[in-house]
Structures are given as C-alpha cells and as structure tokens.
Amino acid sequence: MGEFVQRRKDLWQRVRAQNVDAFLLVNVEGSDQPNLRYLTGFTGTFGVLILTAQEAVFLTDPRYTEQARAQTDLAVEEVRGRWIPQVMERLRLLGAKRVGIGNTRVTLHLFEELKKAGEGLEFVPLTAPVEELRRIKSAQEIQKIREALELTEAGLQWVLKNVRPGQTEREVALDLEFWYRKEGADDVAFDLIVAGGPRTSRPHHRAGPEKLRAGDLVLFDIGVRLDGYCADLTRVVALGRPSAKALETYKVVREANRAGIEAVRAGASGKEVDAAARRVIEEAGLGELFGHGLGHGVGLEVHEGPRLSPASEDTLLPGMVVTVEPGVYFPGELGVRIEDVVVVEENGARVLSSFPKDELLLLPRR
C-alpha cells in the first residue's frame, strides 16, 4: 500500500468517528497546501480532496491538471469557472450528507460560501485531523528532515568561511539563501535570521542593513525546505573576541539545550521538557530573560505540533520530531539561542542536527 493511500486510510479512520460520510479538504491559493501534499503529494496552490469510505476524489483547475496527474496517485477531475458549486455537486453525487472539514485552515468566509452552495449538505468542523496525523513522522519523513538539516548545516559551514566585519546582515542572509538554492533546496523554510551584536536579543529579528562589527555575536536561525520538508537550526558565533558576558551566557544556554534534549522521550509532556531546560536558566538567575517556549514540531511546516512550552498540553510520542531551542536575551545588548532538531524515541531523543555547539565558535577577524 502506497504511503498516500495509507495516510488517507488513517485519516478516514480518524474522521469517521465523528459520524461523517465524507471529508473535504480545500487548498485555495496555498491555504492548506501542507495537508493536501501530505495526503496526495500535490504541491500546487489549488486543489480539492474529497474522501469517503469508498474512494478519494481529487479536483483542480486547468492550471494544475497536468501537474496533479503527474504528482498524485488519484484520478484527477478538472473544474472550470466557479469551482465551489462543482465541488458541492460532486459531494452530492457521492451520496454525502454530513461532510467533515478541518477547521484550522478554512476561513470563515470560505466556510460560509461552502454552506451557501451546499444545500442539503451539513458541514461539520473538525479540529486538525490531518495535522494530528502529521505529528508522527515515518522513517522516510525523518530521513527527509535529516537531509534538509544536512544541507542547512553545509550552508552554515560555507557562509562562516566568508563572514566578515562590514558586511550587512542582509548581505549575509542573501548570500546564504542563494547558496542553498544553487545547492538544491526547494526554498528556505522561513526568512533566514542573521542578527549581529545588539540585535541578537530579538528572537525573530529580520536581517537588515545593519553592518556586522568586530567582536559582535552573530546569531544564525536558518533552515531550508528540501523535498517539502523543513529544517530549523540556530547557532551563535563570535566575530572576533567576545565579551565575558557573552561567553558565560553561551555556557548557560548550552547547558539548557543539553538538559532539554535529555528530557525528550516518549511519554514526557511538553511542559516537562520545557521545564527541564528552563530550570537551568532560572538557576543561573536569568529566567526572566527566556521568554519563549522551548520548541515545536518540524515537518512539512517549520512550525507545527507538538509544542514544548510552559503552556503545552502535548505528550510526546515516538516518531515526533521537535526542536529544542532555549535562549537568553539581554534587551538591546546580546542574545544567545542554540537550537537542535531531535526525534522522540521510547527511551530518549535522537539528535538529527550535528553542527558543533560545545564551545562558542570564534571566527577570525578578516
């Protein structure tokens, strides 16, 4: 049985418990592209999947008909013009009455339009049925994430040989993105973060026109998308001789990262893992300077479930892939974050990222 057939079968087993006789997934201009790709392999921005106990129906418009037939294992039906009435008619032909639809991606406007056109059909909002399936990665998915990380790390190795004072953050980020594209990445998984000096204290800083200076810490939060799957890696380096405060902060964050990874195992809660890393930072008297959660799931999206945070309600299961990324941020002065990607296993974590982190890497002045 193919992987997409099995995924759709697993989804149907999940949604049928809600007493629906069909499930509808609508991807309009990329609104639900990760879930549709997960279930069919389709990478375009418009496609509709109808799933019932007996069959799966895929619909798209003429822009994507040929692509869909090449990428999916399903017969492709083409819709032209106003697609919503045509999809509603297809549901009726399948004998559907009660139709499940994921409620995390569909806008209220689209939901109302579907209801308006779907006379005789009842639409039942379901909370993240596909996203819940995506939390557990197959061996093939884990390998794809590993390969995305390997390319991400190779790019970091390349760019660190060329970083020098006087470059702007934006120049470094663009150089790195170009290298990734040239080396085979589909795309970057997010806007690459390159932050220098005092801007390292901004967890989601956007690389800008500011120049890197000798003695700066430089924070790289980077990742590529390769064959659809994302990488997410953060490392901090020093552009010359760092301050004693920077070195001490790095040691604290490194120990928190290690404690977080050691706490990852099947059955642990997201709260427990977060607390293990957070405790190290709190004991160093820096707890107020760690303001975000410890980590998140990674897969077809760079941020997905489960969550590792003080507010998490998730329990880790074998096959989940999560980040562990503690940070300490002195506003307007400096920040350090160390992020790795790990696979949850029965008795611990398998670390997929491998870029060195034991000591703060000092780059020679050029």
Overview of the structural elements:
The strands form 6 sheets. This protein has a 6-stranded mixed sheet, with helices on both faces. A hairpin with a 2-residue loop joins strand 18 and strand 19. The model has no long low-confidence stretch (mean pLDDT 96). The protein starts with a helix and ends with a strand. It has 10 helices and 20 strands. With 366 residues, it is α+β, with helices and mostly antiparallel strands. The chain has 2 domains: 132 residues, Creatine Amidinohydrolase, Chain A, domain 1; 225 residues, Creatine Amidinohydrolase. The longest helix has 22 residues. Helix content is 34%, strand content 24%.
CATH class of the largest domain equals: Alpha Beta
Low-confidence stretches: none
> Architecture of the largest domain, CATH level 2?
Alpha-Beta Complex
In the CATH scheme, what's the topology name of the largest domain?
Creatine Amidinohydrolase
Gyration radius, in Å: 23 Å
Structural class: alpha+beta
How many strands, what sense, and barrel or not for the largest sheet? 6 strands, mixed
CATH superfamily of the largest domain: Creatinase/methionine aminopeptidase superfamily
